[in-house]
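Human: Respectfully, please carefully check these tokens:
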Amino acid sequence: MADQAQTSRIVVLAGDGIGPEIVNAARRILDLIGSFEYDEQLIGGISIDETGKPLTDEALDACKAADAVLLGAVGGPKWDTTDPDKPRPEQGLLGLRKGLGLYANLRPVKPQPALIDASPLRRDRIEGTDLLVVRELTGGIYFGRKDRQPTSALDECVYEASEIDRIARTAFEAARRRSPNGRVTSVDKANVLETSRLWREVVSGLAAEYDDVALDHLLVDNAAMQLVSDPSQFDVIVTENMFGDILSDEAAMITGSLGMLPSASLGDGGPGVFEPVHGSAPDIAGTGVANPLATFLSTAMLLRDGLGDGAGAERIETAVESALAGGLRTADLFTGAEGEREVGTAEMTDAVIAALG
């Protein structure tokens, strides 16, 4: 955690597509909250174009020396490939998480009051939803042994008990902070996968240490159904890497758009990475219509979870809520309802800045 009496150093990884637009907007917001030193580095497709690698050692070293990392988005059709020997933008993200020891991805899902009707789910299904997805980041199928043959392929899924233990503790601690009646729902596929059976055993074994937090288990297919049929039942969901990737994107639709979902990736003591959950949206890059709000909310998490500035985080969250309450909507949020007005990235940013005062 940075000493707030000093200027905090933030590495900026704008990335690809709309990444530079939304990150630049977020920097305008941050500069109204405090004094920050920015170090711009490359990641993803633009890094492949300029260096041949999705993440260079120099960029990773800069991140390790920072107080926090603000990330935009990576990827796009330009760099899509099925050739296992060619670099892909997403490898930059995996390398960043591994290099910084970031094992916990936190994705809060709480619909903004003004956006309840923007969700494809009915109002009565999503009202009262306030959940946190805790996704394990460094194990599982994404990091297992891989092999490709002409007519077959292998992706190995491996988990160590120690990896499960630390992410489960993160979830239990989060539930304890969120509510005196906190609850953790552990999601797995224990009816099929050995890694999930180990997962369930380890998580269940920790429950006695957190007897003030309730624990239940769901199979991932049932969890996917429950997320859209009754999301308000959940408090903290903890799950492995791939399941968390999928479920958190599904949960984003409760908020009305992927453009509203922030995230924080944290480890033990080093800098965290803060980024919107949505992708690089290359089809709208440069058009000025990208929704910057998930990035603003990610900067709020950066302040709270990365720099220990809860008051600054709350200012940003309140300003975002105020702009939405005033009827402003980017294209992904606009429904045409009475009182709404469609705006672009710049006007939405200006409205949040005005609400900051």
Summary: The longest strand covers residues 8-15. Residues 127 and 277 are 22 Å apart (CA to CA). The mean pLDDT is 94.
